[in-house]
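Quick one: structure tokens for this chain, please?
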Amino acid sequence: MAVPKKRTSASKKRIRKNFWK
């Protein structure tokens, strides 16, 4: 996961859904 710690709050759900898809 190459996402900043500040963008993990709102991007965590979107990134996780696209990460496992």
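The longest helix spans residues 8-20.
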